[in-house]
């Protein structure tokens, strides 16, 4: 919205806002002084009214008295002419005497200034929260290459709509890249950070089962499918299914020993796995420095 954009712009111009507010306040005080003490207006009311007058009577300077119409203070002829039906019509603000309008002007100016200041505060606070959420999403993506939008949302405590909004902003800024790998759209920091093979490895590491299997193979090169099943407490058929994906993507290799198929990490995959593997799953002999 244009008004919000204006407030957002003015939020970064605090000195201008304060100067404008000061000028408006001074103008309001000058107008109030002239309206009360310089410009002529109707006679002032004497307060309190002298005793002996009916309740509700108003006495103006100069002796002019206004009393409520009642049988107690009017003759029968006057009562016959009195109009007790209420106001003849509503009077708009612009029909009031000038001094009354000017008397109300300072309050109006102060109200406008207060509303503008509140708008600037709301925009600045909203922008601060928005930037914090975007930075949090970027940090999570940096620490978790190959994550998905729902993972960002869970990891940062955001709803999925907010997470997708900040992911889109980061993508528009060229800070991240989205890539469809398998069934999921994976998120990485800008495209110069990871090559296609590293992105593929990172996507496998986002799966708990794949990560556990790869960690076990790194710790125990040459492990068999049966031993993986026993070590990880997974069904042998499930281990086989994950191993088939890892073999197809060239992340692991296998050798036959009799009837057993033994698994190893592919030579070209060792370094990316060491770099991308969560620390808790690294092989003790291959820890990061």
UniProtKB/TrEMBL annotation:
Keywords: Membrane, Transmembrane, Transmembrane helix. InterPro entries: ArsR-like_HTH, WH-like_DNA-bd_sf, WH_DNA-bd_sf. The chain crosses the membrane at residues 15-36, 98-123. This is HTH arsR-type domain-containing protein. It comes from Methanocella paludicola (strain DSM 17711 / JCM 13418 / NBRC 101707 / SANAE).
């Amino acid at each position: 919205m244009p008004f919000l954009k204006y407030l957002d712009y003015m939020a970064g111009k605090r000195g201008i806002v304060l100067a404008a507010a000061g000028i408006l306040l001074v103008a309001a005080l000058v107008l109030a002084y002239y309206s009360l003490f310089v410009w002529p207006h109707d006679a002032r009311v004497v307060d309190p009214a002298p005793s002996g007058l009916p309740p509700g009577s108003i006495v103006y300077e100069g002796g002019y008295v206004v009393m409520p119409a009642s049988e107690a203070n009017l003759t029968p002829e006057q009562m016959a002419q009195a109009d007790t039906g209420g106001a003849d019509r509503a009077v708009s603000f612009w029909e009031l005497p000038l001094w009354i309008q000017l008397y109300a002007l300072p309050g109006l100016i102060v109200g406008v200034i207060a509303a503008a200041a509140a708008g600037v505060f709301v925009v600045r606070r909203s922008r601060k929260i928005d930037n914090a959420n975007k930075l949090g999403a970027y940090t999570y993506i940096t620490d978790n290459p190959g994550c998905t939008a729902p993972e960002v949302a869970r990891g940062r405590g955001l709803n999925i709509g907010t997470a997708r909004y900040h992911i889109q902003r980061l993508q528009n800024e060229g800070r991240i890249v989205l890539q469809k790998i398998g069934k999921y759209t994976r998120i990485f920091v800008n495209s110069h950070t990871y090559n296609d093979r590293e992105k593929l490895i990172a996507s496998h590491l986002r799966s708990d089962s794949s990560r556990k299997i790869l960690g076990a193979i790194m710790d125990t090169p040459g492990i068999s499918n049966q031993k993986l099943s026993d070590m990880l407490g997974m069904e042998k058929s499930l281990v086989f299914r994950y191993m088939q994906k890892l073999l197809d993507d060239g992340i692991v290799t296998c050798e036959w020993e009799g009837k057993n198929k033994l698994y190893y990490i592919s030579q070209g995959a060792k370094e990316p796995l060491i770099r991308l593997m969560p620390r808790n799953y690294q092989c003790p002999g291959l820890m990061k420095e």
